[in-house]
Design goal:
Radius of gyration: 32 Å
Number of strands: 9
Largest sheet: 9 strands, mixed
Strand content: 35-45%
Structural class: alpha+beta
Number of helices: 1
Distance between the termini: 106 Å
Order of helices and strands: HEEEEEEEEE
Strand order of the largest sheet: 1-9-8-5-6-7-4-3-2
Length: 191
């Protein structure tokens, strides 16, 4: 038995030496799984906050919706809807016929309603979700009852698409909606 040689590990009393983290693939996998779990939780939290913040913008709570005037065709002439208190919203969109994928001149006139903090025109598909399609209407200088904007309708895969143009009046403590329905035909489709 030589004294200058190291003792055999099996002969040394006490626990066996443990491998380092570099040598333990199971420990590395454990840390990797923990990091992926933390990243997934963080991503879910960010998505949840984004949905919570975006929900009122995408789907505003409407305090009053004016009755729809089914007899008026916004493609042929300006239309007016009236609220229960007698106030009205007149919508005029040109060019007539409501072509898709072309700029539309939008004019709104209010009568008997308070001046809104903000006004928007929201185009929504009646039978098909067409995504977020909303423009802000700006006051016309010199006439506090008139608002204007340029908008555009997207092209739909259907030959005939039913739409609702909704004028949203953002008042200090309520949102009023003035709906107008119309139909567009895909270019080249039979009317």
């Amino acid at each position: 038995m030589s004294t200058d040689s190291e003792p055999d590990a099996s002969m040394v009393p006490g626990p066996a030496p443990s491998p380092t983290n570099r040598d333990d693939p199971r420990g590395a996998r454990c840390w990797g799984a923990w990091l992926w779990g933390a990243a997934a939780l963080l991503a879910a939290l960010v998505i949840g906050v984004a949905v919570h913040k975006a929900w009122p913008v995408l789907f505003p709570a409407i305090a009053e919706r004016a009755p729809l005037d089914a007899a008026c065709d916004i493609r042929a002439a300006a239309c007016t809807v009236r609220f229960a208190d007698g106030g009205s919203v007149r919508l005029d969109i040109r060019p007539r016929g409501m072509p898709t994928a072309r700029p539309l001149d939008v004019n709104v006139r209010l009568q008997g309603l308070p001046v809104p903090e903000r006004m928007e025109l929201d185009f929504t598909g009646v039978d098909m979700d067409m995504g977020y399609n909303r423009v802000t209407l700006m006051p016309v200088a010199g006439d506090p009852s008139r608002y204007a904007a340029t908008a555009m309708l997207p092209v739909c895969v259907r030959e005939r698409m039913r739409w609702e143009a909704r004028v949203l009046l953002h008042l200090p403590n309520a949102i009023l909606a003035a709906p107008f329905r119309f139909v567009t035909n895909r270019p080249g489709a039979a009317p």
